[in-house]
Amino acid sequence: MDLSRFQCRRCGACCRWEGAVRVSPAEIEKIAEYLHIDVREFINRHTVLTPDRRSLSLPEKADGSCVYYDDVRKACVIQPVKPRQCSAFPFEWNFPGWEELCEGGRELRKK
Ligand code: SF4
Ligand code: SF4
């Protein structure tokens, strides 16, 4: 599949499916600053330990979607400072069957 032709259709599926959104220390600083929250407070109250206990991630809502996904606006509320894990999908990482779940992926399969 030629990912150079991939176009994100902003369907929001990648923000709603389950799975840890890891954040680096530098990303935490940027997000905290963007939200006007003290970094220490952000770490304590707005991040969780990943299941492998190797890093911090953004919390999930009860349905598994990212806490920063706005269901009404259908958009990321921290878009300008979203983690690299988000902006790197599907170019730098993806998983078997991702193109079935992602609107841009489904379109790419038809091209
Ligand atoms: S940080 Fe933004 S782009 Fe990343 S999963 Fe959450 S809502 Fe989606
Ligand atoms: S699932 Fe695909 S098309 Fe939908 S927002 Fe994520 S990257 Fe874009």
The class by helix and strand makeup works out as alpha+beta
Span between termini = 10 Å
Mean pLDDT: 96
Shape: elongated
Largest sheet: 3 strands, antiparallel
Considering DSSP H and I runs of 4 or more, what fraction of the residues is helical?
25-40%
> What is the tally of helical segments?
6
Element-level helix/strand string:
HEHHEEEEHHH
Structure description:
This protein has 111 residues and is of the alpha+beta class. The chain has one domain. The chain has helices at residues 13-16, 25-34, 39-46, 84-87, 98-101, 103-110, and strands at residues 21-23, 48-49, 56-58, 69-70, 75-76. It has a 3-stranded antiparallel beta sheet with strand order 1-3-2. The mean pLDDT is 96. Bound molecules: iron/sulfur cluster (2 copies). One iron/sulfur cluster binds next to helix 1 and helix 6.
